[in-house]
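Translate structure to sequence.
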């Protein structure tokens, strides 16, 4: 998944003004009639809700809008350049380069949102503008102004209501596939999910978007496993659903491992609303174990079994309640 890109964006240059003189029969001194140059094209970012990655910006790094056309005779102005529109996914952050650093200047979070990022240069004046009482045949005109130029970094943070987190292979993708129309890859080995998956869930009249985040392991904040680069995608969520496999050896250790990695990435993530879900509850060898019940009580954990539709309903009901 391409969720970051460095690009260069340049608006169009203005067209040059024209040096021209009116030439007609019986009009020996028609005077200047050079037209102005056209305006250079602007560059816009616009949100496209159908996009989910920045792949287009990985292939092409430089974007240049059309230049304005030069002016012509008979006071004809040059054609302005057609504005360039760059489509980005909803949730794209735009950073501008200042020296060695990038500062965030805008956040594209609304459907069909549009932003003019650089403006094209004005067209130059034709020689008509330079006529005066002492200069009836001016032979000068302005060149068009250059367009604005900027170096940018685009970061994508997916917009979802619910972020599903946990260690690898704890049933997050299975949950997503059961409650949405999303079809993430599911298998019985770690790191099946290599990038965030999104799904839309409709339950009892409520609709919300769920993001399945690749599994975290101890040391993820230092680059182990898949690292924590995908955690940016849950910064916008309203609720975290933390999956713990009921057949794990140490529930509390697994829970705290993920919480610690969240804190390493951003302390704000550990202060978000959270629901703890014990998945694969039907596969637990000893569902009466003391450790299991202590964990459930401590974290008000919900139990989930895909052979029990009521448990799925209970999780979805709780999500709606927290949202």
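Result:
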């Amino acid at each position: 998944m391409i969720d970051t890109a460095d690009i260069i964006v340049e608006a169009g240059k203005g067209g040059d003004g024209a040096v021209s003189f009116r030439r007609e029969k019986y009009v020996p001194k028609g005077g200047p009639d050079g037209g102005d140059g056209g305006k250079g094209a602007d560059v816009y970012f616009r949100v496209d809700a159908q996009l989910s990655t920045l792949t287009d910006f990985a292939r092409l790094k430089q974007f240049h809008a059309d230049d304005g056309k030069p002016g012509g005779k008979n006071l004809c102005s040059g054609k302005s350049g057609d504005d360039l529109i760059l489509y980005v996914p909803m949730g794209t952050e735009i950073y501008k380069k200042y020296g060695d650093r990038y500062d965030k200047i805008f956040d594209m979070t609304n459907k069909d949102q549009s932003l003019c990022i650089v403006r094209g240069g004005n067209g130059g004046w034709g020689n008509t503008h330079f006529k005066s009482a002492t200069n009836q045949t001016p032979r000068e005109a302005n060149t068009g102004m250059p367009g604005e130029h900027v170096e940018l970094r685009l970061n994508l943070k997916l917009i979802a209501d619910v972020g599903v987190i946990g260690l690898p292979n704890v049933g997050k993708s299975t949950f997503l596939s059961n409650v949405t129309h999303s079809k993430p890859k599911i298998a019985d080995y770690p790191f099946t999910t290599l990038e965030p998956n999104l799904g839309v869930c409709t339950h009892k009249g409520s609709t919300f978007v769920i993001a399945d985040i690749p599994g975290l392991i101890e040391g993820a904040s230092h680059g182990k496993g898949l690292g924590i680069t995908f955690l940016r995608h849950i910064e916008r969520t309203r609720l975290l659903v933390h999956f713990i496999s009921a057949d794990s050896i140490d529930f509390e250790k697994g829970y705290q491992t993920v919480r610690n990695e969240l804190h390493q990435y951003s302390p704000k993530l550990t202060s978000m609303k959270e629901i703890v879900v014990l998945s694969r509850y039907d596969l637990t060898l000893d569902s009466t174990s003391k450790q299991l019940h202590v964990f459930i009580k401590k974290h008000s954990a919900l139990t989930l079994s895909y052979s029990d539709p009521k448990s799925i309903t209970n999780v979805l009901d709780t999500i709606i309640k927290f949202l």
